[in-house]
Amino acid sequence: MTIRSRFVEPIPMCSLQTWIFGSATEELPDSQKPVFIDADRPKSHVVSRSDFRLLSKRITLGLIDAGLETQDRVLVYSGNTIFYPSLFLGVLMAGGIYTGASPNFTARELSHQLRDSGAKFVFAAPENLPVAIEAAVSAGISPNRVYIFGADDYRAVPQFVAFSDDHSNGPRHWTELISGNEVAARDWVWFEPEDPASTTCCLNYSSGTTGVPKGVEVTHHSYIANCVQVISLLNKAPGIEEFRQRERTLCFLPLYHAFAQTYFGAIFPALRVPVYIMAAYNFERMLQHIQNFRITTLVAVPPVLVSMAKNPIAKKYDMSSLENISGGAAPLSGDTIEEVGKMCSPGASVRQGWGMTEMTCYIPSWDPNVKNESASVGELMPNLSARLMQLDGKTMITRPHERGEIWLTGPTLMKAYWKNERATGDTVHVDADGTRWMKTGDVGFVDRYETGALFYIVDRIKELIKVKGIQVAPAELEATLLENENVSDAAVVGVTINGHEVPRAYVVKSGGSQITAEEVARWMEGKVSKHKHLKGGVCFIDAIPKNPSGKILRRALRDQAQREVGDRKPFDSKLV
Asked: Cα torsion for 36, 38, 42, 44, to the nearest 10°?
């Protein structure tokens, strides 16, 4: 049985840049309104709506002069800056394809993405330059196609001196691309694709938590479709016009990732909502900025929200300006949602969501007029349809609350995995009528089989632990562990001991806690069924390893667990 969204929204057939700005040359409404503000330098480092469009066009002209051609790829290897969104759109305005890489990548990891994407140019933060050059050379890219992309205001760099003595062979500063082209850029009209539905605008690489990262081809039309979906639901909130006048948000998530890129590089700028940008995430600095700038809207990932609920430092700061908090990237417990809500403005909305790179970004969300206190991730966004399938991939589920793999279809579905037909074929099912379905790999269920059904995410198929034939979801055990006041963070993985898979927990203690591993295991025994007991033991660690988007790096923990206890007998709590 197919579940359809109860909303249908028209999707403009144009480029992403046209959707955000409208005209390439006409005066913009609120042209001088700040759209990006450096959170650490809010008085001196500001980009207005007019600056945003003009700088994007200047970067475009510079890239074209440097040799960028239609559908060439440009890789950005940098942390957050207020100029990052202009670089992103500058690539698109030239007809190019943007791809972003984690600033934490090693040369080997970066070289893989450079080779796989076939990037023609690289933009790297100054601190990342040595790794960028090493990776570029390894991938066959000349160092003179590497640009130093810093956070200093380009308007304060009137003339850049070449980084290298041999200008023709060394890396260059990104401001060289825009030198002397401001007048020409004002009247220049950007690239507009003939078919936005088939023209790729970015390669957003999958997280790689279960394998080598794959490039996900997102088209202009898919990108716009996801933005329209999000905005259409946001606009249903009572008093939205008045709220939008005071709305401001804080970006601490990495802009190279689809989650932050979509919200802070497209949705909020289109809504003319000021975005305060942090160069990198720091928990206490984030709290300070929320308090000082009276942030109203927060887009976060579960580890951040767990810290807000559990870390005593959060109690030092005034969070009462927050009216709307959205979480994504991993399941979030109801207790965490409740605790965070207590810090916010009365009546604030704290909701978790669910998304994936292969569906551009967000999938379900919340109608602001629907009150619900459950741990659901919401209902399908406009224009989407879903099925729940048994894990054999053949049998459709038709009963509420029965768990299965979620399949999705709609205009946000990726074009394909970049140059990887096999992976695309394994992931995208095509019906006889040509309808394409994304096999998400996520296990979930719905509360009812009708439009408006609420979705609940259990876990990733590949992360489920099978204890004596019974499936155990790590996310469920992690949420239970976080109910313990002595636990500030947790991850659960399966480990095979004497031929049997059992759950093992990695736990970060709350500050000052003296709880023992034995006590944690016994506490869990009073909370969950026997097959969910932590027979693989409990191990205390300083921090749960996660990627920049907040997903637990389970492969690393599984490997660690196998090294630590793989040859031992299953634990009883008294032996932990």
From this structure: -90
What's the whole-number average pLDDT of the chain?
90
Tokens of 88: 């992103």
The pLDDT, as a whole number, for residue 553 is 86
Rounded to 5 degrees, φ, ψ at 128 are: -100, 0
Instruction: Express each pLDDT in 133-162 by its tens digit.
Output: 999 999 999 999 999 998 776 665 444 444
Residues 274 and 264: their CA atoms lie apart, in Å, by 9
Tokens, residue 326? 């959205």
Taking residue 192's Cβ as centre, other Cβ atoms within 10 Å add up to: 15
Q: How many residues does the chain have?
A: 576
Q: What does the alpha-carbon distance between residue 45 and residue 41 come to, in Å, rounded to a whole number?
A: 6
Q: How far apart are CA 250 and CA 321, in angstroms?
A: 12
Domain locations in the chain as residue ranges: 45-189, 465-575
Taking the CA atoms of residue 19, residue 20, residue 24 and residue 27 in that order, the dihedral angle to the nearest 10 degrees is 120
In 10 A of CB 302, how many CB atoms?
25
Structure tokens at 151: 């956070």
Q: In angstroms, rounded to a whole number, what is the distance separating the alpha carbons of residues 452 and 215? A: 32
Q: What are the backbone dihedrals phi and psi of residue 388, each rounded to the nearest 5 degrees, phi first? A: -110, 125
Instruction: Name the β-bridge partners of 451.
Output: none
**What confidence score (pLDDT) does residue 575 get?**
33
Which has more confidence, 85 or 556? Answer: 85
DSSP string across 163-195: SSSSTTTS-EEGGGGGTT-HHHHHT------S-
Q: What is the pLDDT of residues 487-534, one digit of tens each?
A: 999 999 999 887 788 999 999 998 889 999 999 999 999 888 888 999
By the 8 A CB rule, do 230 and 384 touch?
Answer: no
Q: Which two tokens stand for residue 465?
A: 């632990």
Beta strands in 143-236 (DSSP E): 146-148, 172-173, 200-205, 215-219
Q: Which fold has domain 45-189?
A: Rossmann fold (3.40.50)
Q: How far apart are alpha carbons 342 and 383 in whole angstroms?
A: 34
Structure tokens at 122: 């690289």
- CA of residue 519 relative to chain centroid, distance: 35
**pTM (2 decimals)?**
0.86
DSSP state of 111: H
Q: 3-class SS at 151?
A: coil
Least Cα distance to 7 among 220, 234, 197 occurs for 234
Residues 417 and 406: their CA atoms lie apart, in Å, by 19
Q: How far apart are CA 172 and CA 175, in angstroms?
A: 8
Q: What is the DSSP string of 484-529?
A: STTEEEEEEEEEEETTEEEEEEEEEEPTT----HHHHHHHHHTTS-
Structure tokens at 196: 């936005």
CA distance linking residue 353 with residue 329, whole number of Å: 8
Does the structural domain 465-575 have CATH classification 3.30.300.30?
A: yes
Q: Has residue 388 got a pLDDT over 90?
A: yes
Per-residue model confidence as pLDDT tens digits over 428-446: 999 999 999 999 989 899 9
